[in-house]
Amino acid sequence: MSIISDNLIAIRSRMKSAADRVGRQVSTIRLVAVSKTYPPAVIAEAWEAGQRVFGENRVQDALPKIQELPADAEWHFIGHLQSNKIRKALPAFTLIHGVDNPELAIQINRIAGEMGLIASVLLETNVSGEATKFGFAPDDLRQNLEGLMALPHLSVNGLMTMAPYSEDAESARPFFSALRELRDELTAKSGNPLKELSMGMSGDFEVAIEEGATIVRIGSSIFGHR
Ligand SMILES: *Cc1c(COP(=O)(O)O)cnc(C)c1O
User: Fold this and answer.
1) Atom 11 in ligand 1: which residue has the minimum CA distance?
2) In the structure, which protein residues have their CB atom closer than 6 angstroms to any atom of ligand 1?
3) Which position among 1, 46, 162, 187 has the lowest Cβ density within 10 Å, counted as fewest Cβ atoms?
4) How many CB atoms lie within 10 A of CB 139?
5) For residue 7, which of 37, 31, 30, 28 has the smallest C-alpha distance?
6) How many other C-beta atoms can be found within 10 angstroms of the C-beta atom of residue 71?
């Protein structure tokens, strides 16, 4: 057994405890193993341990890894997607977490249309209001959601956020609950369920699960410090 396999077992057990605390089924929460910066041999250890979903934040770094890992691995794009990388990203990633402005969404829709695809995306939302963070402000989302949902080659599956960095996981809770409340509000208004809430990283995923995360993105607690 490798350290990575032990880490995955520990993470899954902590995910289950967090889900149990709030009466959720852990099977409704997906773990994205964030493999950015790690080489294929290290990622393969996680695959051997049964992990199938991986997160990458640079298209050019991810493509050779995707080639090298078994074809049943699934890849999510978790970074800031540059418009000149969309065409390469779309066939490689099943979910794009960080769509953070309407222009990017419109470009993804156009290119997905040209390629005969439907792109599944999450809209990155800046619930903390930190100026350094990417993402839609909640009011921008309220204004733009209907238009984005009408794009025929875009499937808006939910929302994603990053809490401001802190040593204390509890300090992330208000941002995670704000994202859930915004999701509920937008779902009620649009009549379209925004199913996914991508929130929680190594330092705060248990709080995120307690607040309703359906996807957690965990890197360093699985693979070690970068
Ligand atoms: C790197 C990264 C993560 C994982 O962070 P860890 O603290 O290593 O778990 C999650 N989400 C995004 C968007 C990232 O860039």
Assistant:
1) 217
2) 34, 36, 57, 78, 162, 201-203, 217-221
3) 1
4) 8
5) 31
6) 7
Q: What's 141's domain CATH number?
A: 3.20.20.10
Q: Tell how far the Cα of 219 is from the centroid of ligand 1, in angstroms.
A: 6
The encoded tokens of residue 127 equal 């619930």
Which residue lies with its CA nearest to atom 6 of ligand 1? 219
User: Which of these, 41, 36, 34, lies nearest to 11 by C-alpha position?
Assistant: 34
Q: What's the CA gap between 79 and 55, in Å, rounded?
A: 9
Structural domain count, the chain: 1
Among all chains, which residue has been given the structure tokens 């992330």? 172
pLDDT 10s digits, 47-100: 999 999 999 999 999 999 999 999 999 999 998 999 999 999 999 999 999 999
Q: Tell me the CA–centroid distance for residue 30 and ligand 1, in Å.
A: 15
Enclosing domain of residue 128? 3-223
**In ligand 1, which atom is closest to the CA atom of 218?**
9
Whether pLDDT at 205 is above 80? yes
